[in-house]
Each structure stands twice: as C-alpha cells, then as structure tokens.
From TrEMBL:
It comes from the Bacteria. InterPro entries: Uracil-DNA_glycosylase-like_sf. It comes from Metabacillus halosaccharovorans. This is Uracil-DNA glycosylase-like domain-containing protein. The lineage of its organism: Bacteria, Bacillati, Bacillota, Bacilli, Bacillales.
Length: 250
C-alpha cells in the first residue's frame, strides 16, 4: 500500500540535479521540511512510503539516517528521470529496496538474520534475498518514519527521548502503531536496538498489537555499536525460542 505524501514533495524532487551526488545542502532544506521542534528537524524521504501489508517479517529502526535519505532521493530521482514508464507505486517500492538499512548496517543485519535461521523458517536461500528477490516477505520501517536530525546530526533516540517530544510522540505512538496494524498476518517484529525496543514495549502495554511476535533483545546492527556481537551472542538462546513460536504460526 502506498501513502500519498509523495505528491506534496514530487515537484521538489523533480527539480533536483541528478548530475552530481546529493548533499545535505540539497536535501535538508525548507523544500523537504516536514516539521521542526526546538533543535529537532524532520524531513521527507520517499523510501518509507510503501507498506507491505503481506509481510511475514518486520524490521524496525528508530528513524532513517542521512545515508538512507540520500540513497532514497538519488534512487527515486533516477527512476523519475529515466524510467518514466513505471508507476509511482512501482518507483516507491524500488526506492525502498535500495535505501532501507542500506550500507554496512544492512550487511551486519543480514549476517545476524542468517545466524538465527530466518531463511530456513521463510524457506528462502538466505537473508540477503529478503532485500532482493524475496522482498515481498519483509517490511522495513522506523518508529519515526521520516528522517529526524538533532542539531543537524542523525537522531539516535537518546536526546531528547521520544516521549519528551510532542512531534516524535505523534509519529511513534500514532503513525507507527497504525502502520503495524496494517500488516495482515502474524509477523515477527525485530526492533533494532534498545530505544526501539523500549518504545515497542510501552506501546504493547497500552495498545492491541498482540497479533505479532516480538524478538526483543536484538542489537542495533550499526558498525558503531561496539557491543553488537556480544549482545547478539548472549541472546541467541532467547531468539531461538521466540523464532520457534513464530514458526508454529506458519
């Protein structure tokens, strides 16, 4: 399913210069601004518009970072310029494929997913195919679906806390909940990192999201997370138990 915010920003996207790499000066502008609050700034990015309501696996970050935003805009601009025979819906799907958890983060994520036998449960060759030929099985998203920056740096969920910001609370406890409820099947939800996990735990106490199964304890796959491997190895037995429960739902 496609949401429609793209139409608002389409003219500004089409005016971007595709002959050079996009920079923050190109994208972190009023033309793509959604909202601001104190030292927080939220900007549009096209790669979280598509919602795969048939997904069996949902992977959730805190908010897209600058790298994902840049990849998304470069991807959609190329499609709009050179593949005009494609529908906007198709273009948004391809943009999501290219940008979601792109870079080193995706590589680390795929490695961890392979170790907990996600591919065996889904009957696919490997976790990498979830970002390619088996993309129909996965939905990638963020608690705050559009890129947020704090003092012009990637927002990490720490300062301010989501609950301390009316802007972020609206997205995390409103839009994000609505998005999860659109997924039709009982999916395995993997929150990436402690901040996302805390928000989901809080939502589960007050909202009805019981149809999904939640893999808590999964570390954030960023290379900057020095505790990633140790935390992952410690929690492997817990992951096996949760995945076994999920597998029984197939």
């Amino acid at each position: 399913m496609i949401e429609t915010k793209l139409q608002t920003f389409l003219p500004a996207i089409q005016s971007l210069d595709i002959t050079k790499p996009l920079t923050k000066q190109d994208l972190l502008t009023d033309a793509f601004s959604i909202a601001s609050e104190n030292e927080l700034s939220m900007y549009y990015s096209p790669h979280n518009e598509f919602i795969n309501d048939q997904a069996k696996l949902i992977i959730v970050g805190i908010t897209p970072g600058w790298h994902q935003m840049k990849v998304a805009f470069e991807q959609i601009k190329q499609y709009l310029a050179f593949k005009r025979n494609l529908s906007l819906d198709h273009i948004l799907v391809e943009t999501k494929k290219a940008a979601s958890f792109s870079g080193t983060m995706r590589k680390n994520l795929i490695d961890m997913l392979d170790q907990i036998r996600i591919s065996q449960v889904l009957h696919i060759p490997d976790a990498a195919s979830l970002f390619d030929v088996n993309r129909d099985l996965i939905h990638t998203t963020s608690v705050i679906k559009y890129p947020v920056f704090f003092q012009n740096k990637n927002y990490t969920g720490h300062k301010p806390k989501v609950q301390q910001s009316p802007l972020l609370t609206t997205y995390a406890y409103g839009n994000f909940v609505d998005e999860l409820n659109q997924i039709k099947s009982s999916a395995l939800v993997i929150p990436l990192g402690r901040m996302v996990e805390e928000i989901l735990q809080h939502i589960l106490k007050s909202r009805n999201l019981t149809k999904h199964i939640y893999l808590f304890g999964f570390p954030h796959p960023s290379g900057a997370n020095g505790h990633r491997i140790r935390q992952f190895n410690q929690n492997k037995p817990i992951f096996s138990s949760i995945i076994h429960k999920w597998e029984r739902n197939f």
